[in-house]
Write a structure and sequence with these properties.
48% of the residues lie in helices and 9% in strands. The strands form 4 sheets. A two-stranded antiparallel ribbon has the order 1-2. The protein has a two-stranded antiparallel sheet with strand order 3-5. The chain has a two-stranded parallel ribbon with strand order 4-6. A hairpin with a 7-residue loop joins β7 and β8. The longest helix has 35 residues. It is elongated and about 125 Å long.
């Protein structure tokens, strides 16, 4: 057999082998594509947790356990070819019936994790806020059993008192977010909002700093059950500060009572503490609760009023009777006390 015939025969074999290889590649490529783009046969949406440090192989195992993946190698090859295997982001993801393995991977590369909400409530003390954070099943606890001083040190604000430093709002979080991460978000939000409001404050207020504004805002927050009354109550306290009158507000006294049992007594008003605004002039040393933006704004833009006193109605409405002088205030208190009795 001549060299030419041998070459021609070898070339034909190569063509046959190449054709078979191409058919095989096409077959597997078609199967992989079909497998990866087939919609999940789910009656309803499910969730899957992909923890930090996990690999695409561990993800494949989870999907197999859920009956959502048949061919593990197809899944791994697809992830490798699309360079998704090393870019999956940790978190909790929804797997809906109209999704496919391909769209799931795309979602995980994009980090489209499930968002849960947690509310930090206006008027809560720091410890009440922290308790609500630690009761949330989606938050990972890192600050448990730490003192206030230790917590602020961990957050990078050593030496600061934590009360009132965190902005009350509804925060959207992913499963596994740490309490440190959440509190840092709330701290940064408060710092930003307080500075914005302080820069736009009215002139001539008897407040030396944005922190003093935050202290007064926390008192207004605790004293105002009705939003419309905040600027009025703020104006009243501003008037008292200008006249060097003591604020004489019960929420500050309560804050200074250890193991408060829910009842404020006359002896509590007479017992001196740094937070007793009946025995001490000016503002207390720190805020007494979380103040919302409306309370901060009210303090920095108070109503122009001559009121110096107020007392709450006894009907549970949260409304107050305001007075410009002690005589009228005592009458209002007498009426309120009679109705209460």
């Amino acid at each position: 057999m001549t060299m030419y015939k041998l070459f021609k025969k070898s070339l034909q074999r190569i063509k046959v082998i190449s054709s078979i290889a191409m058919i095989a590649v096409f077959y597997f490529a078609t199967n992989i594509y079909s497998e990866m783009h087939k919609e999940f046969s789910l009656p309803e949406a499910e969730t899957i947790n992909f923890s930090r440090g996990s690999s695409i192989r561990s993800l494949a195992t989870q999907l197999i356990d859920k009956g959502l993946l048949e061919h593990k190698n197809y899944f791994l090859i697809w992830g490798k070819l699309n360079r998704q295997d090393t870019r999956l982001q940790a978190g909790e993801y929804v797997i809906s019936p109209d999704m496919s393995l391909a769209t799931l991977l795309e979602s995980m590369v994009a980090g489209k994790v499930v968002q849960h909400n947690i509310a930090l409530i206006e008027g809560f003390t720091f410890r009440q806020m922290l308790a609500s954070v630690h009761q949330n099943a989606f938050v990972t606890q890192k600050l448990i059993d730490l003192s206030d001083e230790e917590i602020m040190k961990v957050l990078g604000h050593e030496g600061e008192h934590p009360e009132g430093r965190f902005f009350p709002d509804t925060y959207y979080i992913s499963r596994g977010v740490t309490d440190i991460e959440l509190l840092n978000r709330a701290y940064d939000s408060m710092a930003k909002i307080l500075e914005q409001e302080w820069q736009q404050r009215e002139e001539g207020l008897p407040l030396k700093s944005s922190y003093e504004a935050l202290i007064l805002a926390s008192i207004v927050e605790k004293e105002s059950a009705i939003a419309e009354e905040r600027p009025l109550i703020a104006g009243l306290f501003i008037n008292r500060l200008r006249k060097k009158m003591r604020l004489q507000t019960d929420p500050t006294v309560i804050y200074g009572i250890e193991n408060y049992d829910g009842n404020i007594r006359f002896r509590d008003l007479r017992k001196d503490t740094p937070y007793n605004t009946y025995t001490r002039g000016g503002l207390p040393p720190t805020p007494i609760a979380l103040a919302g933006r409306e309370a901060i704004h009210a303090v920095l833009h108070p109503d122009k009023t001559k009121y110096l006193y107020f007392v709450a109605y006894s009907d549970g409405s949260g409304k107050h009777v305001f007075s410009t002088n002690l005589k009228d205030h005592e009458k209002a208190v007498d009426i309120y006390q009679r109705k209460k009795r």
